[in-house]
Amino acid sequence: MTRVHDMGGRFGDGPVTPEAEDVVFHTDWHRRALALTLATGTLGKWNIDVSRHARECLSPQDYTTFSYYEKWIAGVADMLVARGVVSADELEGSAEPTPSPLAEKALKAPQVAGVLARGGPADRPSDIAPTFAPGDNVVTRKHPANTLVPGGHTRLPAYAAGARGRVVRLHGTHVLPDSNAHGLGEAPEPLYAVAFPASELWAHPEHPRDEVVLDLWQSYLVTP
């Protein structure tokens, strides 16, 4: 989380205006954007961490001006071209689409409910033993960068970098997004729920005794 999308605690973005929870799609193309994302997600060309990183890699201009589902569409379009599923000309409509054997892998409408109900568990066996236990004090790495790939995907937000927290739960071992987003393997390692006092994260919190709990991988953490 080191690009324009890493907005937590950043000043100048204006207030958050919650929308009514019963409004899922504002227009019909929003439905199609979600459908396209789900359909292409089963092609076997990328995983959820790759897709998150694709949206993070949008230009700052596009990221700050695109709507929610425009970001989704842009990320999918970039991945389709980058992975050779379609050409840029095909995507723009200036070339006739060529048949692809991947078409049979695309998620079909009757399959969607079952696939979403099953979810995508990310827990995996691992030989890496937990370094920390509930109740331990920890400090996050000072720079929230992916240590495997410069400028790559990571789930450590900038506002929590270099912060002191307390382990409240060990979730087991899970796929490391920093590796999985870049084709370096799932590299599962221990995942912890870590609680941070608001006073540790923000200069002037409205409620200093509040806590923020983040799920963080072992490689993000060090002993104080």
Strand order of the largest sheet: 4-3-2-1-5
Per CATH, which architecture of the largest domain? Orthogonal Bundle
**Class based on secondary structure composition and strand pairing:** alpha+beta
Averaged pLDDT, please? Answer: 92
- Into which percent range does the helicity of residues fall? 25-40%
CATH structural class of the largest domain: Mainly Alpha
Number of H- or I-type helical stretches: 8
Global geometry? globular
Helix-strand topology string: HHHHHHEEHEHEE
| End-to-end gap | 23 Å
For the secondary structure, the number of strands is 5
| Relevant CATH superfamily of the largest domain | Nitrile hydratase, beta subunit
Biggest sheet details: 5 strands, antiparallel
Rg, alpha carbons: 20 Å
Beta-strand content bin = 5-15%
Pfam family, one: NHase_beta_C
Domain Nitrile hydratase beta subunit-like N-terminal: 1-104
InterPro entries: CN_hydtase_beta-like_N, CN_hydtase_beta_C, CN_hydtase_beta_dom_C, Elect_transpt_acc-like_dom_sf, Nitrile_hydratase_bsu
Domain Nitrile hydratase beta subunit: 121-221
Architecture blueprint of SSEs:
Blueprint (H helix, E strand, L loop, with lengths): L27 H13 L7 H9 L3 H6 L2 H15 L5 H5 L19 H7 L18 E4 L23 E11 L2 H4 L8 E9 H4 L9 E7 L3 E2 L2
Antiparallel strand pairs: 1-2, 1-5, 2-3, 3-4
